[in-house]
Design a protein that fits this description.
The protein is mainly alpha-helical. It is built from twelve helices and three strands, in the order H-H-H-H-H-H-E-H-E-H-E-H-H-H-H. Helix 6 packs parallel to helix 7 and helix 9 packs antiparallel against helix 12.
C-alpha cells in the first residue's frame, strides 16, 4: 500500500526476485515511506518538553545574539544545564590564598558542592581538601567531584575510594563526558567505517596479490575489457552492502539521538 505507483511496485518485485536477501534489506531502508514514521519516541518527546526554558531563564538570554542563544539551547538540550551569569568574580594571584578561600567555601556549603579539577594530588593540600569534602558529605551536603584520569594519574585509587566511602560522588572526566559524546562518536565511527570499507584506490595500489583483495576491490576480478560476469558482480555488490547495513542497524539509535538532540533550536 506504500508504493502506489505500479512501476515502482514492479521494480521492487523484480529486485526481490533477483536478490532475495539483499533486496529485502534494500526495501527496508529505501523502499518504504517514512513520512508517517515517528523519529522521536514518546519518552524523548517528554524529555524535550521538560527542557522548555522558564521565562526567567529565557529573558536572561535576550542580550545575546541569535547564534549564541542557539548554542546555549544546544548545551541545555545535551547536558540539561543552563547558563548562569556570574555577579562576583575574585582573582587570586597566590596559590595559598586560593586554596584557603576554597577551603572556606567548602566549609560554608550547606546544600551542594560541585568541584572539578584537572589535577588532584594526595599531598598536604589535596588531603586537606579531601577531608573538608568528606566532612561536608557526612554533614548531609551533596558533594560531586570530577577529576581527569591523565592529570591525576599519579594519585592512588585509595585517595578517591575514601571519598566515595564518605558519600561523595567521584567520577573521572571521561565517564562523565563520553556518554554525552556517544552519539557523535558512534556517528563518526560509522562514517569512518563506510569510508574505509568503500576505499577502492588504496588497496588497488598497495596489494599486488589478488588473493588478498577485499570484497570491494574483488569486483574488479569479474570486470574486463572483453567480458563481464554480471551475475557475480551483482552477488559481490549485495555481499558488500551487508556489513554497512548491519553497522547502520546497530548504530541507528545513536545516530538519530544525535540528530534530534542537535536539531533543537532556541
Amino acid at each position: 500500500s506504500e508504493n502506489r505507483n505500479p512501476v515502482k511496485s514492479l521494480a521492487w518485485v523484480t529486485v526481490l526476485l533477483l536478490f532475495p536477501v539483499g533486496g529485502i534489506i534494500l526495501y527496508i531502508f529505501f523502499g518504504r515511506s517514512i513520512k508517517n514514521t515517528r523519529m522521536i519516541s514518546r519518552r524523548n518527546r517528554r524529555k524535550l518538553a521538560e527542557l522548555a526554558l522558564p521565562d526567567a531563564v529565557q529573558s536572561s538570554w535576550d542580550p545575546y545574539s541569535r547564534e549564541i542563544r542557539q548554542q546555549l539551547m544546544l548545551a541545555r538540550t545535551l547536558t540539561g544545564s543552563t547558563l548562569l551569569t556570574a555577579r562576583d568574580v575574585e582573582i587570586y594571584t597566590s596559590g595559598a590564598d586560593k586554596f584557603e578561600a576554597l577551603l572556606r567555601d567548602i566549609a560554608s556549603a550547606r546544600r551542594y558542592i560541585n568541584l572539578q579539577y584537572y589535577i588532584f594530588a594526595d599531598d598536604a593540600i589535596g588531603t586537606r581538601i579531601a577531608e573538608a569534602l568528606m566532612e561536608r558529605a557526612r554533614a548531609g551536603v551533596k558533594v560531586r567531584v570530577i577529576y581527569d584520569h591523565i592529570g591525576s594519574i599519579k594519585v592512588k585509587n585509595s585517595f578517591f575510594r575514601r571519598m566515595r566511602e564518605a558519600g561523595i560522588e567521584v567520577y573521572p572526566f571521561f565517564r562523565v563526558v563520553f556518554p554525552l559524546l556517544k552519539p557523535v562518536t558512534i556517528t563518526a565511527g560509522v562514517l569512518t567505517f563506510i569510508s574505509c570499507w568503500n576505499d577502492f584506490i588504496t588497496p588497488l595500489y598497495i596489494l599486488n596479490d589478488t588473493r588478498k583483495w577485499g570484497m570491494i576491490i574483488s569486483v574488479y576480478n569479474f570486470w574486463g575489457l572483453y567480458t563481464s560476469e554480471w551475475n557475480l558482480i551483482c552477488a559481490v555488490i549485495v555481499l558488500t552492502l551487508a556489513p554497512i547495513m548491519i553497522v547502520y542497524i546497530l548504530a541507528q539509535k545513536y545516530i538519530i539521538a544525535g540528530m534530534t538532540a542537535g536539531s533543537v533550536k532556541g
